[in-house]
Design a protein that fits this description.
Strand order of the largest sheet: 6-7-8-3-9-10-12-11
Largest sheet: 8 strands, mixed
Number of domains: 2
Distance between the termini: 28 Å
CATH superfamily of the largest domain: P-loop containing nucleotide triphosphate hydrolases
Radius of gyration: 21 Å
CATH topology of the largest domain: Rossmann fold
Strand content: 15-25%
Number of strands: 12
CATH class of the largest domain: Alpha Beta
Mean pLDDT: 91
Shape: globular
Low-confidence stretches: none
Length: about 325
């Protein structure tokens, strides 16, 4: 096991109240495994990713839980200890490559900086920067380019090359294909696949369920700061248990199946004041149709239970 997340909670302390962005989320990632989290915007997917590397932006703060990386709790490490791990053993590909790169510095210097920070000689770092560019199908002469001189796909490949510099044990990818065309998107996914084949574990964040289905080993479903279902991709696609997972799939078009697309009624809750019990119950059609649930779902928070081998769901239907 590379990472074990236990009851991770992350709150944002704003002037308008405390936003309970992530609450008691638990999961693990095995060596060489690709785990994808999907869910609506604001469900807490990216916040979990930032929490793993203890890089939650202000005014956010990890308020509880553990992130165990090879036995070390990353939530307890000092900035100096975290610096030794970030970029070397755990790397992250951020959502927008233009904001991840310094617009005033050549990309080669930025790739080399990652290695120099971890003790590589400057001359050797620049040499390896060229090799990394070639490995992600970017011409090595782009080493002297500035970010604005490159396409969006090239910038994202450069971010991935930086993440690959030390063959990390865990790569976190936060919506790395956003705003890219399908051809470039596919090449980015192939790069991540190649890393996985070399033993790197992938934690992937996306809105695109088709990407999760195509590439992942396991899938987790986030809703309103909670992990509501997690299991192998085939298990969740063929037999989704949580009403939110079912509604999410029903709202997704499928080119190969003639089906009616239906939307999820209502809106996600305000996480400054989330509903008691199950956070999905105000939008849940099952809750509306079963009288026996109306005394439970809106009062008692559901706990994760195993419904089949390594397939877990947090729903009172499966108590």
């Amino acid at each position: 096991m590379v990472v074990e997340v236990k009851d991770l909670s992350i709150y944002y302390f704003t002037l308008n109240g405390v936003v309970r962005a992530v609450e008691k989320v638990s999961f693990n990632i095995e060596k060489g495994e690709w785990l994808t989290f999907v869910g609506e915007s604001g469900s807490g997917k990216s916040t979990v990713a930032y929490g793993i590397i203890n890089l939650v932006p202000s005014p956010g703060r990890i308020t509880g839980g553990q992130v165990l990386f090879e036995g070390k709790d990353l939530t307890k490490l000092s900035p100096e200890e975290l610096k030794e791990i970030r970029g070397k053993e755990i790397s992250m590909v951020f959502q927008d490559p233009m904001t991840s790169l310094d617009p005033l510095r050549k990309v080669g210097d930025q790739i080399a900086e990652v290695m120099i920070e971890h003790g590589v000689d400057e001359k050797e770092a620049l040499k390896r920067a060229k090799e990394l560019l070639r490995s992600v199908n970017v011409p090595e002469d782009r080493i002297d380019y500035y970010p604005h001189q490159l396409s969006g796909g090239q910038r994202q490949r450069i971010i991935i090359s930086m993440a690959m510099a030390f063959h990390p044990k865990l790569l976190i990818a936060d919506e790395p294909t956003t705003a890219l065309d399908v051809i470039v998107q596919d090449s980015i996914m192939d790069l991540l696949d190649a890393l996985k084949e070399k033993g790197t574990s992938i934690f992937f964040i996306t809105h695109d369920i088709s990407l999760a289905v195509e590439r992942s080993d396991r899938m987790g479903i986030m809703y309103a700061g909670k992990l509501v279902e997690i299991g192998k991709v085939d298990q969740i696609i063929e037999n989704p248990h949580h009403p939110y997972t079912q509604a999410l799939f029903a709202s997704t078009p499928d080119l190969w199946v003639d089906k009616k697309i239906s939307s999820i009624p209502g809106f996600p809750p305000d996480l400054r004041n989330p509903p008691p019990g199950c956070r999905f119950y105000p939008r849940c059609s099952v809750f509306q149709s079963k009288d026996e649930l109306k005394k439970v779902c809106d009062v008692v928070e559901p706990q994760m239970v195993e419904v089949e081998n390594s397939h877990f769901v947090a729903c009172h239907l499966y108590r």
